[in-house]
Model the fold of this input.
Amino acid sequence: MMSITFKGHSQTPDSSAYSWVCLMARLCLAAVFLYSGSTKLIHWQAAISEFEGLSLPLPAVAVALTVAVQLLGGLAVALGWRVRLAALALAIFTVIATLIGHPFWNFEGPELQHQLTTMLEHLAIVGGLRPMVQARR
Done:
């Protein structure tokens, strides 16, 4: 059983403080995907142009699938509905999207640092999703 300590008091998965921590973690991670998905939806043509720049086949379909995964997965995580499945889908999506969209190994200088930083940030998001995938409830 996992426990968290707040001001010297141990919190277990059955405590209300632990539940609040889990809720805040879900909302923080969901916000990343809800923002990204809604931005792509609002700026649809710009998103298609970005995906064309990545040489993706059928960029409009790729954008539609991306928006669907980000919005539906983000909503599910935020609302606490089928969190394990949603977090797993978002983690897999994030790994694939990061490898496609931020190939740091193809860059040099400042752009290498930018792409590598972005890749590491996305890796941290995947790390944040991991406990949700493994949660028992």
The chain has one domain: 15-134.
